[in-house]
Design goal:
The chain is α+β, with helices and mostly antiparallel strands. The chain has one domain (about 20-95): DnaA, N-terminal domain (GMP Synthetase, Chain A, domain 3). It is built from five helices and three strands. The chain has a three-stranded mixed sheet. It is elongated and about 55 Å long.
């Protein structure tokens, strides 16, 4: 088996894995802070991802309007970090008291 064949097979397996919605959610959560920066990630965190919509929990409700205004920029940053245009929309939700 050649290294080229092994590389192609690994690429195929990774592509299949990333087609799984749960796998995409995990990748998005791990990419979030690096993509949006520490200041933004301290105030919110991704909760879920479905059909191009990233749901993000906002822990500082005073920041929600500003974050909403930054949605386009944050979508671009996340998609660049992912290397794929997965995120089409961000839905911001307030953190619930526990």
């Amino acid at each position: 088996m050649s290294f080229q064949h092994v590389g192609s097979e690994l690429q195929r397996l990774l592509s299949e894995w990333l087609e799984n919605p749960e796998s995409r959610r995990v990748v998005l959560q791990r990419t979030w802070e690096r993509a949006v920066g520490e200041e933004v990630s301290r105030r919110c965190r991704p909760l879920g991802f479905d059909d191009g919509v990233l749901t993000v929990e906002v822990t500082d409700s005073g920041c929600e309007p500003r974050l909403e205004a930054m949605s386009g920029e944050l979508i671009t940053k996340v998609n660049i970090a992912l290397g794929k245009p997965w995120v089409r929309k961000i839905v911001w939700v307030a953190a619930t008291e526990q």
